[in-house]
Amino acid sequence: MRLPSLIALQMLECAARLGSFTRAAAELNVTESAISRQIQALEERLGVRFFERVRQRVVLTPDGDRYVRDIRAELKAIERATKDLASRAGGMEVLELAVVPTFATQWLIPRLAGFRAEHPRIVVNIHARPEPFHFADSLFDAAIYFGDDPWDGHPSAKLLEEGPSIPVCSPQRLQDVPLREREDLLKLPLLHLASRPDAWPDWFGGDDETIRRRARLGPRYDLFTMVTGAAICGLGIAVLPEMMVRTEIESGRLAALPFDGAPGSGRNGAYFLTYRQTKPGDGTERDKAALFADWLLRQCEGT
After folding, report:
1. Signal sequence: where (predicted)?
2. Where are the beta strands (DSSP E) in the chain?
């Protein structure tokens, strides 16, 4: 049997991922009828039906779901190999790195110039990816993530523990309102990161439900950078990992308040680096990921 064309398989994967022929056509810059024709021809050729229509979406049949999952990894491998070939042709290597967004913006990116200086032929592309994933289903060569353990089956290295969270605010806010005791913080707006709704109650600790209830009040922000920006602008007080706001404190944009949180109020876990397990004899990805890992571990020493 002749293999289906790569174009048809790309259209099938895209329509399956987006659940829409219209959106797939927009992403691939073709017409919706072209998507429909290619998938119909593929169905007739293979004798299967790939999609069912459910309301305004197309949903994979069991046969379609199994086939798309099988080909998706291969399409990703072809795309990754093509990008690597193009980069090497220009004398460069590309490391596709998935990173927890906060770690990327607050810790990694400010240090990346050092890696570029040591390895000018390796380009690091950074992708925000807070959730775990399977390397086989992605274009990524390496990942930095927060968790309790390394990922099984891949080379991994523990980078940093997040450490304690501390209350911070703008220096002007600290001058305007005298803060003598921990409970005085409740007189000011408390800023919350949506993904850590219990950060303030846990920081206060104890069994006083009145304090814990008051500690949950205040505006919430989806992104770490939003909370940090709100604190810098004087909108309130945020409780954030000290390692993530060290630069803002040292620059004077934020002031650390002289109060300790309750024992164990910080987040448990650590940041890990893991990278793709390569095939024996294929050293390109392993080499660039290993070089990045060595550099990263050196940056973490003494942090």
Report:
1. none
2. 51-54, 57-60, 93-99, 122-128, 142-147, 156-161, 165-169, 190-193, 220-221, 237-241, 255-256, 270-275
Weakly modelled stretches of the chain, pLDDT under 50: 280-286
pLDDT digit string, tens, across residues 238-266? 999 998 999 999 999 999 998 888 877 77
pTM for this prediction:
0.66
| Under 8 Å between Cβ of 207 and 135 | no
The predicted structure's pLDDT at residue 284 = 46
- Class of CATH domain 165-256: alpha beta
91-162+269-301 with 165-256: one CATH topology? yes
Q: What is the mean pLDDT of the chain?
A: 85
d(CA 68, CA 59): 12
Check: CB of residue 76 under 8 Å from CB of residue 85.
no
Residue found by looking up tokens 């205040």 in the block:
218
Q: Which CATH number fits domain 6-87: 3.10.310.40, 3.30.1490.190, 3.40.50.1220, 1.10.10.10?
A: 1.10.10.10
> What is the distance between the alpha carbons of residues 125 and 143, in angstroms, rounded to a whole number?
11
Report which of 33, 15, 16, 13 is spatially closest to residue 24, judged by C-alpha positions: 15
CA distances from 232 to 36, 111, 165, 235, 271 (A): 52, 22, 17, 8, 26
Distance CA 239, CA 237 (A): 7
Sorted by where each begins, the domain ranges of the chain are 6-87, 91-162+269-301, 165-256
Q: Are 75 and 13 in contact (CB under 8 A)?
A: yes
